Amino acid sequence: MRRHIYLACGFLSLGLGAIGAFLPLLPTVPFMILAAFCFARSSPAMEARLLEHRHFGPHIRRWREKGAISRRGKKAALAAFAFSVVMALLFSPFPWFLIPVGAAMVGGTWIWTRPD
């Protein structure tokens, strides 16, 4: 039963990552890393396909080996956080806009402190 849940979560993450390739604010690589994690526990063949993928494989391996995020990935994530904060400041009343500001500060700090 557990294997089937991991398999379903892996395919869900894979699907969200695929959607994220076309939507600018939905991250792709974190979903692919999550999919690889789920497939490692349910389908070694699918995990191997992700690890061998020419675009996502290096990111997944770098994350697994060093907990590293590429400099380009960091910049993209921080740009998305900045966009979210600007949108919150423009469209949310006080004090509600503080929630995305705080989340961006915490998330952005964590991302920036990961190795390259």
TrEMBL record:
Pfam families: DUF454. The chain crosses the membrane at residues 72-90. The keyword Membrane applies. Keywords: Membrane, Transmembrane, Transmembrane helix. It comes from the Bacteria. InterPro entries: DUF454. GO terms for cellular component: plasma membrane. This is Inner membrane protein ybaN. It comes from Sphingobium chungbukense.
